[in-house]
UniProtKB/TrEMBL annotation:
GO terms for molecular function: DNA-binding transcription factor activity; transcription cis-regulatory region binding. GO terms for cellular component: cytosol. Gene3D superfamilies: Homeodomain-like. It comes from Pseudomonas taetrolens. Residues 234-330 form the HTH araC/xylS-type domain. Keywords: DNA-binding, Transcription, Transcription regulation. InterPro entries: AraC-type_N, Homeodomain-like_sf, HTH_AraC. Coiled coil: none annotated. PROSITE patterns: HTH_ARAC_FAMILY_2 (PS01124). This is AraC family transcriptional regulator.
C-alpha cells in the first residue's frame, strides 16, 4: 500500500515564491496537487507528501537544478516553532539533536543522523522512500537546506570538509559549489556532508534557556498533534486500500471510522485531503503496481479497482498519468 505522510506547506510556498519572480502563475506549479489558494494562507495547513511531490515535480520539469536553489532559501525561520527552538538552543549540537527528534516538524523525506568519526561529523540523509524520479531533487534540497539551517543557527557559514551523494553526477554539477562549497563525491553509498567536530560545541548567538524551554515544549505538543493526525490518515488509507474493489463512499467510510460524514470531511480538509483524492491516489498506485507486476487484462484491473466500465478506468488513468494503461505497461 502506498504511504503518504503529512507535511507542512514550507516547501510548496518556497517553490511558488521562487518561480513568482519569473512570472510563473501559481496554477502551473499547483496543477494536479489538489492544493488550493486558500490553503496557502493558513499557517496550520497540512498537506500530504504526495501533494508536495506533485508541486516539486512541476518545478523540476521547469528547471532540473531547482533543488539546489530552493535549499539555499530554506532558512531556519521556515520551520515555525521548531525554528525558534533551534535558534535558542545553547550549541549547534544541541540544536541539531533537537531537530533529529522531530523529523515530522522538519518535514524531511529522509532518515537523518549525525555520525561522528574521530574529529569529523557527517550529517547523513538516507532512507529515501518517495518518488524515485525526484530522488536527486529531494537529495539536493535536503542537504543544502540542512547546510542553510546550520549557517543560520551559527550566524556564519559552517565550513564543510566534504559532501557525498548516492546519485550520479548531473550535468549541472558545477552548480553544486555554489550551495555546498567543498569537494563532492557522487555514486556514494549514502548522502551526507562533513564538518569539523568542534562545531557541535559552538555556542549559538541567539541562545536563550528560558525561551528555548518554552519553544521545545510547544514543539513536543505540536509533534504529538501532528503524529496523531498522521495515525488517523494512515487508518483511513488502510481502510480504503482494503476496499478498492467496492469503495464505501464518504458515508460508509465515516461509519467505519465511527464518526459523521461531516466530521470525516472536516478532518480530511484539515490534512489537505478529500475522500476522492485519497481514493484516486490509492487506485492509481494499485493500478501501476498491477500493470507492472501482472499480465492481467485491462478489464480485470479495472474491475479490481472498482470501476464498472473499462472505459472509465482508462479515462481516469489518463487523467492521473497522462498516458493510457496499455501505454504505461508498454
Amino acid at each position: 500500500m502506498p504511504h503518504s505522510h503529512l507535511t507542512t506547506l514550507n516547501a510548496v510556498s518556497l517553490v511558488l515564491s521562487t518561480f513568482k519572480a519569473e512570472g510563473m502563475p501559481n496554477e502551473v506549479l499547483l496543477a494536479g496537487s489538489g492544493i488550493r489558494a486558500a490553503d496557502l494562507s493558513r499557517a496550520d495547513s497540512r498537506i500530504t507528501t504526495d501533494q508536495e511531490m506533485r508541486v516539486c515535480a512541476n518545478a523540476v520539469a521547469l528547471r532540473r537544478e531547482i533543488g539546489l536553489e530552493l535549499g539555499l532559501r530554506m532558512h531556519v525561520s521556515s520551520y515555525g516553532m521548531l525554528g525558534y527552538a533551534l535558534l535558542t538552543s545553547a550549541t549547534l549540537g544541541d540544536a541539531l539533536r533537537l531537530a533529529l527528534r522531530y523529523p515530522a516538524l522538519l518535514g524531511t523525506l529522509f532518515d537523518l543522523s549525525l555520525e561522528v568519526q574521530d574529529d569529523i561529523v557527517w550529517f547523513c540523509a538516507n532512507g529515501y522512500r518517495e518518488n524515485p524520479q525526484l530522488a536527486v531533487f529531494n537529495t539536493e534540497l535536503c542537504l543544502v537546506s540542512l547546510k542553510t539551517i546550520c549557517n543560520d543557527l551559527l550566524g556564519q557559514p559552517l565550513p564543510l570538509l566534504a559532501a557525498r551523494f548516492a546519485h550520479s553526477a548531473p550535468d549541472y554539477r558545477a552548480q553544486y559549489g555554489k550551495s555546498l562549497d567543498c569537494p563532492h563525491r557522487f555514486d556514494a553509498s549514502d548522502n551526507a556532508f562533513a564538518f569539523a567536530r568542534h562545531w557541535l560545541e559552538h555556542p549559538l548567538p541567539l541562545a536563550d534557556a528560558v525561551t528555548h524551554q518554552a519553544m521545545a515544549e510547544r514543539c513536543r505538543r505540536q509533534n504529538r498533534e501532528f503524529t496523531g493526525r498522521q495515525t488517523w490518515l494512515d487508518r483511513i488509507r488502510q481502510l480504503l486500500a482494503d476496499q478498492l474493489h467496492a469503495a464505501p463512499g464518504v458515508e460508509g467510510l465515516a461509519e467505519q471510522m465511527n464518526c459523521s460524514p461531516r466530521t470525516l470531511r472536516r478532518h480530511l480538509h484539515a490534512v489537505g485531503c478529500s475522500y476522492q483524492a485519497l481514493l484516486d491516489d490509492l487506485r492509481f498506485e494499485r493500478a501501476k503496481s498491477l500493470l507492472n507486476e501482472t499480465e492481467w487484462p485491462i478489464y480485470r484491473i479495472a474491475d479490481t479497482l472498482g470501476f464498472s466500465e473499462t472505459a472509465s478506468f482508462r479515462h481516469a488513468f489518463i487523467r492521473w498519468s497522462g498516458v493510457s494503461p496499455s501505454q504505461f505497461r508498454a
